[in-house]
Design goal:
647 residues, Methylamine Dehydrogenase, Chain H, Immunoglobulin-like, seven-stranded mixed β-sheet, globular, disordered N terminus, Ig_E-set, signal, Gal_Oxidase_central_sf, Galactose oxidase-like Early set domain-containing protein, GO-like_E_set
Length: 647
């Protein structure tokens, strides 16, 4: 009983009392006074080694129902005219498959899109029965193809013991914690390697640097001002730098800039932002910048934690908190534009909608001054959903939002375009697929984020079509999982184009007898394009004959092998930056469609070369590693290839 009251108070009290005697009671003494800001030295002071942690070279069904069964569906190849795309008033008509116009998706022209159609609604498999930890945080690491999962050390328990000493010494006590709180999982074999953590990662943030290392920021208590790094090797472990941040960053969002630097926004009771310092260095109050948007959007129950933050293609940073959004110039630290308010409730924690940056579409020999970039925000809850579910007795679980809103963040006159999803969803995730479509998965239909504060698991993923011919729905309801994925769920797009699904913990610890037990099973979901009847379209990338490292604006060649003759107009090449996923936030998730410059057929039997142009600069694609997919007829290749973009 006392333990239950302790955890309940831990969540409620910060929402009711910000300071006690002028000092924030949740943070250790190093945080006292850090909310009092003392100016900013400017980005030049942070430019050592680039200023970041890197070194080296720089169709819903009309009734909203899902079809049953996991067998392959009926298949056809259909050409759709994209003259009308999400609000465009141009009219277009369906064409025969013999159309010679090149698909809009391959970036060569604004013609037709060719993709295989299927009635297959996806399939589920349990990949690992016990991951050891419930994946509150999840990211796929480049090159080594291992999923990093971690929870929080505050629990002092998990479903796996450390393989041996030393155990973690619990700060301020004589206790030892000998449980695993962080693992690496091979995404092909499921093999697990435990990692040791000392500083609490509860509700932290992160991003990959130019060399593919994870740089994670913030967390709870002794981890709230910590920066931690995980490199890519068979024996690498966490390197932790406590005190590296100027403010505590609990429920904060990290974003990568075009030059590879990181910024981190917000965190409970700290309406500020700062640039992440170079490895081994520390920020002070002078490196912290006031950010009034986070003050002005703070409801009595917050609703602006874990803001949605994306780098726009013009180098400005888009920040969305609660129901408002702005563009920030990161070099001058000034807000240059505010967008219209998004109606119908709150979208950020604990209302907890989800968001993504939609695909960035490039042309060959790209010379446009402005490359369009759009944000999609779906779900969330009413402004008082947390108060009703967590603070009121008996609990009341309000319905979640049913809408999705889309906005071009490169237009100063941009307005939200709002459409309805097939069902309500909060606590969900949005995975941008290799084809550019969006998989909306996980979450609940009622309630809020928080301990035991949501009900009605939303078991059906929904496919959002990024581009359509303007007829029919943009949504398709897919086959459900039988495992609820509620608060603290996560995902990762895998090299074989499946989706790894993990996490879900609505409990303050590891509980097996709760309404929604702490979930340590890991699933894989095969989307519609993995219909067995479409397997003939899956190409194979010949990595040893392809360029895997390229500088901005340069040409790269990718060699593919498949069955029979390849039609260029049915090809699409995309690159994907793996996101740091937690709490419905997919930090730095980014899909870019590359322009096809040349297509050289039959360089060997059933083998072809695709010549592509790399993105022109880091604002389009921040430096680092991307998964390169070749899609044919809308079906991704058998295995993506890692490619590194460099200045």
């Amino acid at each position: 009983m006392m333990a239950s009251l302790f955890w309940r108070g831990l969540i409620i009290l910060p929402l009711l009392f910000v300071y006690v005697n002028g000092e924030h009671f949740l943070y250790p003494k190093r945080h006292v006074g850090k909310a009092e800001l003392a100016g900013y030295k400017g980005p030049d002071s942070l430019a050592v080694d680039g200023g970041g942690f890197y070194s080296g070279p720089l169709i819903a069904d009309d009734d909203g129902s899902a079809a049953g069964g996991n067998a392959g569906g009926t298949t056809e190849v259909k050409v759709e005219n994209l003259g009308k795309v999400d609000g465009d008033n141009t009219n277009g008509n369906a064409n025969s498959v013999e159309s010679t116009q090149v698909a809009a998706k391959n970036g060569i022209s604004n013609g037709n899109i060719v993709e295989a159609k299927t009635t297959f609604k996806g399939s589920w498999e349990v990949f690992v029965e016990n991951a050891g930890v419930s994946a509150m945080h999840l990211i796929l690491l480049p090159k080594i193809n291992q999923a990093l999962m971690f929870d929080a050390t505050v629990w002092k328990i998990s479903k796996m013991k450390l393989p041996g000493p030393p155990c973690r010494r619990i700060e301020g006590t004589n206790e030892e914690d000998c449980y695993v709180h962080s693992i690496l999982m091979d995404v092909e074999t499921g093999k697990i390697r435990p990692l040791r953590l000392n500083y609490d990662t509860w509700c932290s943030s992160g991003a990959l640097d130019i060399n593919g290392r994870l740089v994670s920021t913030g967390g709870y208590n002794n981890g709230s001002d910590t920066v931690r790094i995980l490199d890519l090797c068979d024996t690498c472990g966490w390197e932790e730098y406590p005190g590296a941040l100027g403010n505590g960053r609990w429920y904060a969002t990290q974003v990568t800039l075009g030059d590879g630097r990181f910024m981190v926004f917000g965190g409970r009771d700290f309406p500020t932002y700062e640039f992440v310092p170079p490895q081994g260095q520390k920020n002070t109050l002078k490196d912290v910048v006031d950010f009034n948007l986070l003050v002005e959007t703070h409801d009595p129950v917050e609703n602006n934690l874990y803001p949605f933050v994306y780098l726009s293609t013009d180098g400005n940073v888009f920040i969305f908190a609660n129901n408002r959004s702005v563009l920030l110039n990161p070099n001058t630290q000034t807000i240059i534009h505010e967008f219209p308010v998004l109606p119908n409730g709150a979208r950020n924690y604990p209302a907890s909608g989800s968001a993504c940056l939609l695909p960035i579409m490039l042309k060959p020999n790209e010379d446009r001054r402005v490359i369009p970039a759009e944000v999609l925000i779906c779900g969330g809850a009413s402004h008082d959903a947390y108060a009703k579910a967590d603070l009121q007795r008996p609990k009341v679980f309000l319905p979640g939002n049913t809408d999705c809103a889309r906005l071009d963040i490169t237009k100063r006159n941009g307005k939200w375009k709002i459409i309805n999803m097939p069902s309500a969803r909060l606590l969900g995730d949005m995975a941008v697929l290799p084809t550019g479509d969006v998989l909306i998965v996980n979450g609940a239909k009622t309630g809020s984020a928080g301990w035991d504060d949501a009900r009605e698991p939303n078991l059906n993923p929904v496919l959002y079509k990024y581009q359509t011919d303007g007829t029919g729905s943009k949504f398709t309801v897919l086959n459900p999982s039988n495992i609820p994925r509620m608060y603290h769920s996560s995902f990762a797009l895998l090299p074989d184009a499946k989706i790894l699904i993990a996490g879900s913990n609505t409990n303050p610890g590891y509980l097996d007898d709760a309404l929604f037990p702490t979930e340590v099973r890991v699933e894989k979901f095969s989307p519609h394009y993995l219909d067995p009847n479409l397997a003939m379209f899956r190409q194979e990338i010949i990595a040893e004959k392809s360029n895997n490292q390229v500088k901005y604006g340069q040409k790269l060649t990718v060699q593919i092998r498949g069955n029979g003759e390849i039609d260029q107009q049915k090809l699409q090449v995309t690159v994907y930056s793996p996101p740091f996923v937690t709490h419905g936030i997919s930090m730095n998730q980014r899909l870019i469609q590359l322009g096809i410059v040349e297509f050289n057929k039959n360089v060997a039997p059933n083998t072809n070369n695709i010549v592509l142009q790399a993105p022109m600069n880091g604002n389009i694609a921040p430096p680092g590693y991307y998964m390169l997919f070749v899609n044919y007829n809308g079906v991704p290749c058998r295995q993506s290839m890692w490619v590194q973009f460099l200045p």
